[in-house]
C-alpha cells in the first residue's frame, strides 16, 4: 500500500499535496475507493480515496506503527556531485536519518551561487520525501539550508562526530558503545578530497570527536551509509 504524508486534517479526512495528487492519479492511476496509507503528525492511518482533484482521503483506521530510530541522527554532508548527493539523501533517509545539513568546505568540488542554494535544498527535500514514502517512515527528515564549518560548530547535540581518515581517530563503534544514552547526534562527513587539517582541528576544538570507520578509506557517499548502518545496529534493539 502506498504511503503519503499530510498536514491538512479536517475531522476524519486528509487533503494531500499537489505532488501527491499527481503521483496518485497519474503515476499510480488510483481511483476513488482505493486505499492508501497516510502519515499525520507521525501517526499512521489507513484511508480510502474519496476525491481525486485534489486527492482527499477518509480515515478507515489508525494503526499503531512507528518506524523511527530512537536516536535522532543528523547527517552533515559536505557538498558533492549531484548524483552522489542524491544517493546520500536517499539511502540516508532509508536508514533512518532525522535530518540533513549540506556543508560548504574548502575542498568541495561543488560551489553553488547564492541564488542556486535554495533551489538545491528544495530539490533535495523532494528526494527525501520520495525515499520516505518508499521506506515507510513516520517522519520526513528536514534538509536544512547550506551551512559552513563555523555554523555547525555552534549547533547543540549530545554527540558530535567527525568522520576522518586521520590515524589518531577513535573507531565509531567504540564511540557509539560509550554513548548508549545519546538522544541527538550529528555526523560530519567530508567531500571527495577530505577536510583541510585546519577544518578538522576547528571542529575538534568545538566538541567534535574524530572517529574512523575502519582501516579502509571509503568514498564520501559510502561513509554516511556505513555510519548509519552501524548506528542502526547499535541502537535498534
Which keywords apply here?
237 residues, Ribosomal Protein L25, Chain P, Alpha/beta knot, 8-stranded parallel beta sheet
Describe this protein's structure.
The mean pLDDT is 92. It is built from seven helices and 14 strands. The protein has 237 residues and is α/β, with parallel strands linked by helices. The chain is elongated and about 60 Å long. The longest helix is centred in the middle third of the chain and has 22 residues, at 114-135. Helix 2 runs parallel beside helix 3 and helix 2 (82-94) runs parallel beside helix 7 (220-235).
Brief digest:
With 237 residues, the protein is α/β, with parallel strands linked by helices.
State which percent range the strand residues make up: 25-35%
The proportion of residues forming helix, as a percent range, comes to 25-40%
CATH class of the largest domain: Alpha Beta
Distance between the termini: 27 Å
Structural class per helix/strand content? alpha/beta
Describe the secondary structure blueprint for this structure.
Blueprint: E1 3-5, E2 9-10, E3 13-15, H1 18-27, E4 35-40, E5 43-52, E6 55-63, E7 72-78, H2 82-94, E8 99-104, H3 114-135, E9 142-143, E10 147-148, H4 149-153, E11 159-163, E12 170-171, H5 172-177, E13 184-189, H6 197-205, E14 209-212, H7 220-235
Parallel strand pairs: 1-4, 7-8, 7-13, 8-9, 8-10, 11-13, 11-14, 12-14
Antiparallel strand pairs: 2-3, 3-6, 4-5, 5-6
Helix pairs in contact: 2-3, 2-7
Amino acid at each position: 500500500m502506498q504511503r503519503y504524508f499530510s498536514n491538512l486534517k479536517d475531522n476524519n479526512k486528509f487533503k494531500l499535496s499537489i505532488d501527491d495528487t499527481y503521483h496518485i492519479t497519474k503515476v499510480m492511476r488510483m481511483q476513488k475507493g482505493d486505499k492508501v496509507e497516510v502519515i499525520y503528525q507521525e501517526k499512521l492511518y489507513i484511508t480510502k480515496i474519496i476525491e481525486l482533484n485534489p486527492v482527499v482521503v477518509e480515515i478507515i483506521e489508525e494503526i499503531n506503527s512507528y518506524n523511527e530510530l530512537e536516536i535522532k541522527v543528523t547527517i552533515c554532508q559536505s557538498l558533492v556531485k549531484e548524483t552522489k548527493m542524491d544517493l546520500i539523501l536517499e539511502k540516508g533517509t532509508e536508514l533512518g536519518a532525522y535530518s540533513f545539513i549540506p556543508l560548504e568546505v574548502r575542498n568541495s568540488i561543488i560551489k553553488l551561487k547564492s541564488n542556486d542554494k535554495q533551489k538545491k535544498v528544495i530539490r533535495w527535500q523532494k528526494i527525501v520525501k520520495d525515499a520516505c514514502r518508499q521506506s515507510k517512515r513516520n517522519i520526513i527528515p528536514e534538509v536544512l539550508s547550506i551551512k559552513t564549518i563555523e555554523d555547525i560548530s555552534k549547533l547543540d547535540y549530545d554527540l558530535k562526530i567527525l568522520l576522518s581518515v586521520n590515524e589518531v581517530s577513535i573507531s565509531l563503534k567504540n564511540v557509539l558503545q560509550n554513548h548508549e544514552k545519546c538522544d541527538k547526534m550529528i555526523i560530519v562527513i567530508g567531500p571527495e578530497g577530505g577536510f583541510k587539517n585546519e577544518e578538522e582541528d576547528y571542529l575538534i576544538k568545538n566538541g567534535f570527536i574524530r572517529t574512523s570507520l575502519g582501516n579502509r578509506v571509503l568514498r564520501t557517499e559510502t561513509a554516511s551509509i556505513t555510519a548509519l548502518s552501524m548506528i542502526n545496529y547499535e541502537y535498534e534493539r
